[in-house]
Amino acid sequence: MRLIVLACAPVLFLSACSQPETVPAPPPAPEPATILAGVDLTKPVRALGTEPFWGVELTGTEIIYSGVDRPVQRAPQPQAVIQGTTVTLAGTTAGGTAISVMLAATECSDGMSDRTYPLSAIVKVGDETLTGCAASSAAILSSGESGPVAEPAQPAV
């Protein structure tokens, strides 16, 4: 009996000293994509269209809709839902009007200028659907009257 206990002692000792198998922690959740067709969606973005003339500003906190002979409407800007090459934002104004903005990573021309924008836009305000183009607000302000609407060059650091 002593021989069995002595023969088993090293096995028992090693098994008592072995550490439990650790399960690796799951990898951190990936950061949501914030760039669509070169446009940083964390910065202000402007969508615009013609016939009728309209504009939507995505400020980061608000969706602001305006149009010729139309009242300005504001809604809290929700988290963007990004699926592949499109992003969708949907909210409701204080007056109860539904407003949604869908941006797609397809080059767009507004049909009236010689500008090309990196994003196409579909905006729904209540029952009305508007189509147009979009880019970052900074790119629209810094681009010329023709050619691509592109992000302004960043100064070298």
Q: How would you portray this structure in words?
A:
With 157 residues, the chain is mostly beta strands. The chain is 14% helix and 44% strand. The strands form 3 sheets. The chain has a 9-stranded antiparallel beta sheet. The mean pLDDT is 84.
The best one-word shape is globular
> What is the CA-based Rg, rounded?
28 Å
Output the helix-strand order: HEEEEEEEEEEEEEHE
Helix content: 10-25%
**Structural classification:** mainly beta
Uncertain spans = none
Number of helices: 2
Largest sheet: spatial strand order: 6-5-4-3-13-12-9-8-7
Question: Oligomeric state of the chains?
Answer: single chain
Number of strands: 14
Q: Which whole number gives the mean pLDDT?
A: 84
Strand content: 35-45%
Biggest sheet: strands, sense, closure?
9 strands, antiparallel
Ends apart, CA distance between termini: 79 Å
Walk me through the topology:
Layout: H1 2-17, E1 35-36, E2 39-40, E3 45-49, E4 54-58, E5 62-67, E6 70-76, E7 81-83, E8 86-92, E9 98-104, E10 108-109, E11 114-117, E12 119-125, E13 128-136, H2 137-142, E14 146-148
Parallel strand pairs: 11-14
Antiparallel strand pairs: 1-2, 3-4, 3-13, 4-5, 5-6, 7-8, 8-9, 9-12, 10-11, 12-13
For this entry, give a set of tags.
about 160 residues; 3-stranded mixed β-sheet; globular; 9-stranded antiparallel β-sheet; mainly beta
